[in-house]
From TrEMBL:
Residues 3-39 form a coiled coil. This is TTC37 protein. Pfam families: TPR_16, TPR_19, TPR_6. One of its GO terms (cellular component) is Ski complex. The keyword Amino-acid biosynthesis does not apply. Keywords: Coiled coil, Repeat, TPR repeat. InterPro entries: Ski3/TTC37, TPR-like_helical_dom_sf, TPR_rpt. One of its GO terms (biological process) is RNA catabolic process. TPR repeats lie at residues 40-73, 562-595, 596-629.
Length: 669
């Protein structure tokens, strides 16, 4: 076949393809290849025809042969791209990406529009495969090409926005290089926006800040972006909210952070981060109750803030709400998730605070939970303060040997650690070795003078050491006063001050004030509440007594606060208000159904009300629970007499006289 015949055959093949006569085209191409086995066009036409005849393997082989012959010719690469783009082609995306890369190389110096079309296709392919770095790098090439061609600012802005859209899911992978390219795209998009300030630009800024907040290492960039947005949009709370949460989460409580909290709170009093910031400000200013109130409210609006939960737990500890502090620490730990970077520091702090709160609850189960919390602290075994806490937990659990072992080790390794001496003091105190306990607590105070708990335990040591130290004003009283001064929320210090003024100094008025303060600080402290009421009665101040009792009974759940119901019931009984007395004494019995004295008082209230049958039942119940209550037995006999049950009454009177021969009321009956 001559050169002329080869050209004619190739022309016939091209015409056949145009007329969709693909088999005919293959015949012409094969004839050419018999003569010229390396004819580039013949191989390309075979690829085209085979692809249309659904013979992909033959088509692929033909295109690859053509590429082998002429690697920088477009036709075969274009044909191979078209073949791989067909929907019936599977597992060819990697090969297609290579083909697109070659086409970009071939189009670069020529047809710019086709280069852009292929670039778009390649980016879409990478995006489907979630190859975000390749997406970013390829799209940047497209933008560079457009910049070189002198594209308008608006077109470039849209391209940067498209790049942001393409990479929006890449932050989950936390690939640093891709992340940097995404942040660069945001910065270019912000700088190339037409309307500044404007709604679209404002929303873009929000997205940029949200994206930055997902990169822990971009702290400086995040702070700058927030400040810049605040300057551009001074009435928008979003950047301030992010900045506040960032300061909270990083533990940075600088002047700038406190100013940021105040500014956000002034701008939007309902903003969760603003209320949280205000709560932390209160905590730093020692306004603990305000801090608890604000942090609780703020966390109801913005609950995924582990650091804020820990600050709340810290504030709750300051006012001795230990059970609430444990719950807040649990919330912090739940919100923290995986212990990485900054999270590890917050996790350790939350676990330590949780353990401290559990130790203060002071029961064996809480102590066991405290030990488990301390075991989870990373590198906790090398922290002497954590070791001292572990010793306290063992002591609370009754494991004296383990507690003593930790105490001895700490005193040897850290002789200047206040917590080591305090632990030794607690061990001696629990064993009633008061003289040794005194030395240990004095050593702890010498090293850490501002700890109210050390002064309180030293005061208790003097209280129980001897009558002499109990009465010595310079001993127990001084320490309780110091504890109360250092920690005005320490209810137990005020309770012991009340006991001192009542039992030692004989100052009922001052004692009542201390007990009242102790009870206001801890409404679960029945001893202080009862003492405050009793002393108010003794001082003739029934208004104060009733005010305390009314406050407790209003808040009490059914079956609780027996002491308050009983006190108020007896008051109503004394003052001739039997119906109110009945109601309160019944409430007291719901809390403790086996209190014989309470049943006797209820019988008296029913009797005064004229409810003889129910009074009789109450007196009988009292005498069943305590057969030694002669008065209840006598009252039951008298009621049987009133109700006309004479034989029963006589039998009951005789029963009393067998035990107490000269009991006059029974003789009369």
């Amino acid at each position: 076949m001559s050169n002329k015949e080869v050209k004619a055959a190739l022309k016939s093949a091209r015409d056949a393809i145009r007329n969709k006569e693909y088999k005919e085209a293959l015949k012409h191409c094969k004839a050419v290849l018999k003569q010229e086995k390396n004819n580039y066009n013949a191989w390309v036409f075979i690829g085209l025809a085979a692809a249309e005849l659904e013979q992909p393997d033959q088509a692929k082989g033909a295109y690859k042969k053509a590429i082998e012959l002429e690697p920088n010719q477009l036709l075969a690469w274009q044909g191979l791209a078209n073949l791989y783009e067909k929907p019936n082609q599977i597992d060819v995306k990697g090969d297609l990406a290579d083909v697109y890369q070659k086409l970009l190389e071939l189009y670069e110096s020529g047809d710019k529009q086709k280069w852009c079309d292929v670039c778009n296709k390649l980016v879409e392919l990478y995006h489907q495969e979630k190859k975000y770095l390749e997406v970013a790098e390829t799209w940047q090439k497209l933008i560079r090409m457009k910049q070189e061609e002198g594209a308008e600012k608006a077109e470039l802005h849209q391209l940067w926005r498209k790049m942001i859209h393409l990479l929006k899911d890449s932050t989950r992978n936390q690939d640093n290089k891709t992340g940097q390219l995404l942040l660069t795209a945001f910065e270019h998009a912000l700088h190339s926006a037409d309307t500044v300030p404007g709604d679209s630009h404002q929303n873009l800024y929000k997205d940029f800040i949200e994206c930055l907040s997902k990169f822990p290492h971009e702290v400086a960039r995040l702070e700058k972006a927030c400040r810049d947005m605040v300057a551009l949009y001074p009435t928008v709370s979003y950047p301030l909210e992010v900045l506040c949460l960032h300061f909270v989460q990083s533990g940075t409580l600088s002047e700038e952070a406190l100013h940021c909290f105040s500014r956000l709170f002034e701008m939007d009093a309902n903003s969760g981060p603003g209320i949280i910031g205000f709560g932390i400000k209160c905590l730093k200013e020692n306004k603990y109750k305000d801090a608890v109130k604000s942090l609780t409210e703020g966390l109801q609006k913005t609950n995924q803030c582990p650091a804020a939960w820990r600050y709340l737990a810290e504030a709750q500890m300051k006012i001795h709400e230990h059970r609430s502090a444990v719950l807040s620490c649990n919330q912090a730990l739940e919100a923290l998730g995986t212990p990485e970077g900054c999270n590890l520091q917050w996790k350790n702090l939350a676990l330590q605070l949780k353990a401290e709160a559990l130790i203060k609850i002071a029961d064996a189960d809480a102590a066991e939970e405290a030990i488990k919390a301390l075991e989870q602290i990373v590198d906790g075994s090398s922290d002497p303060v954590v070791s001292a806490l572990r010793g306290q937990a063992y002591l609370r659990k009754g494991l004296m040997d383990q507690a003593s072992k930790i105490s001895q080790e700490l005193l040897l390794s850290h002789p200047d650690l206040a917590e080591a001496h305090a632990l030794e003091g607690l061990i001696h105190y629990s064993q009633k070795n008061y003289e040794q306990a005194e030395k240990s607590f004095l050593s702890a105070i010498e090293r850490k003078t501002g700890t109210a708990e050390y002064h309180q335990y030293l005061g208790l040591t003097y209280w129980f050491m001897s009558d002499e130290t109990k009465k010595d004003k310079g001993k127990a009283l001084t320490q309780f006063l110091k504890a109360a001064k250092l920690d005005s929320y320490l209810g137990s210090a005020f309770c012991y001050l009340g006991s001192y003024y009542r039992d030692i100094a004989g100052d009922k008025s001052r004692a009542r004030g201390c007990y009242k303060k102790a009870f206001e600080l801890d409404e679960m402290d029945e001893e202080s509440g009862t003492a405050a009421v009793d002393l108010s009665v003794e001082l003739g101040d029934m208004d104060t007594a009733l005010s305390i009792l009314n406050e407790v009974t209003e808040k009490a759940r059914p079956g609780t606060a027996k002491w308050a119901w009983l006190h108020r019931g007896l008051y109503y009984l004394r003052t001739g208000q039997p119906s109110q007395a009945v109601a309160d004494l019944q409430a007291a019995l719901r809390a403790d159904p086996k209190d014989s004295n309470c049943w006797e008082s209820l019988g008296e209230a029913y009797l005064n009300r004229g409810s003889y049958s129910t009074a009789l039942k109450s007196f009988r119940k009292a005498s069943e629970l305590n057969p030694g209550l002669v008065y209840s037995i006598y009252r039951a006999a008298a009621l049987e007499q009133i109700l006309g049950k004479y034989e029963n009454a006589i039998a009951t009177y005789q029963q009393i006289l067998k035990k107490t021969e000269n009991y006059v009321p029974a003789l009369k009956g």
